[in-house]
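Co-fold these.
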Amino acid sequence: MSLLQTRSLRAFYGDFQALFDIDVTVEEGDTIAVIGANGAGKTTFLRAIAGALPCADDMVIFDGQPIGGRTAHEIVRLGIAMVPEGRRLFPSLTVEENLLLGAHSGRTGAWTLARVYELFPMLADHRGRPATLLSGGQQQMTAIGRALMSNPRLLLCDELSLGLAPVVIRDIYARLSTITNEGMTLIIVEQDINRALDASARFYCFLEGRVALTAQSHGFDRTAITSAYFGV
Amino acid sequence: MNAVQIVIQGALLGGLYALFAIGLSLSFGIMRLVNIAHGDLIVLSAYVGLMVINATGMHPIASLVVVMPVMFCLGYLLQRGLLNQTLSGGLLPPLLVTFGLSVIIENVLLEAFGADNRRLQAGALETQSIAVGGIAIGVYPLIVFATAVAAIAGLQLLFYRTALGRAFRATSDDAETAELMGIDNRHLYGLGLAIAMIFTALAGVLMAIRTNFDPAAGPIRLIFAFEAVIIGGLGSLWGTLLGGMVLGIAQAIGAALSPTWQILAGHIAFLIILIVRPSGFFPRTRD
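Predicted complex below.
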């Protein structure tokens, strides 16, 4: 049984339909990438899975359960965590408080404060500082750590590379592979196609709210991706 | 009456004003809710105290054991049943709904208790004083002030040392992301108003021992609370205590000049501070 399945997922912002019949399947332990241009619906897709956008119950199936109609805080409790676009750390909280807040759902497991500091040692040095005073890369690490603190079965990562230097992006993806090597299931949304394909087993290319192309990430013809990406 | 005595009395009165302001400050800080009914909820607490005392013969201070939990529950139900529904549409809906609530509370109290002035009798406690270096300080105002200091210190601990306080701060920063981290905002907001109402209950009963109250006594308390919060700076509880003290001292000086000047002097002090320091002494909130 797949860990996550979306069936004809449709999502709306008011009257505006942002997603049209999206079918995505994620097997436990896999990493899949969602790529696409600005406004293709990538973030909307993650938000719908995380419960931040309402959709019909059976449009999202997690571990055999229909969860489309659940609220965001209930979905965290089931084991889906989000690293939101732009990191969205809490400015009045310190680094450590941001991490502890990630554990609010009360799910226990391998991820503890000590484990997160082991994965990102530089966060331990800044644990008492307000989170938004850190560098962009460190903030992204805090956001990933915060999501891990809920001990998720599925981690949603929205534009991890946004606004970061290439060397920092490489570092963050290297640590992400440590996480996936332990069996974590990941959905990553990326604008950087090469980065996304390298990190994933399968990719879905979105175009104007629909899946334009999906295939195995490795050894796939890049020109076909480019045409699906731009819709030409 | 000498100048030092006037200032001390005013400063102690500021403790009561800070208590008025805590509930208002909490609901704005956590829920971004400007609660126009706050003054009426203070007066409602005093009437709940009156009912408890009439029914049991308790001392007013002891009645808090009942009044605080009652107001806590009322706060939770009010937030979950009514005010949560107003929060998604910007600042105006909560203003209108709490304004309506204010009218309803005043009229229900008028219907139930009549327009008579009431007061809670605390016996000898009301008149006792201690002499410090030739200055007489009332025991009761001192207790009220100490209560305000303890209340703020307690809240400070709650906000910076507990998981609940962390959740309150996170939700206040970014409610949507807090929800994505597993916080149930509707429940948290319920707890927010419930905790605010504990301090509202405290303020209402302590006020009712000190001064007369009637069903229409709420709005002026709301104004004092607003002034204390604004003078102190939005989001800072210690600032609110200072704001209450500034207001109390200004009123005491005004009253010493002429009894008719008491309230006006407080408002004038508030306006002057608004001109000199528009964001108050210790502004915290960024937006």
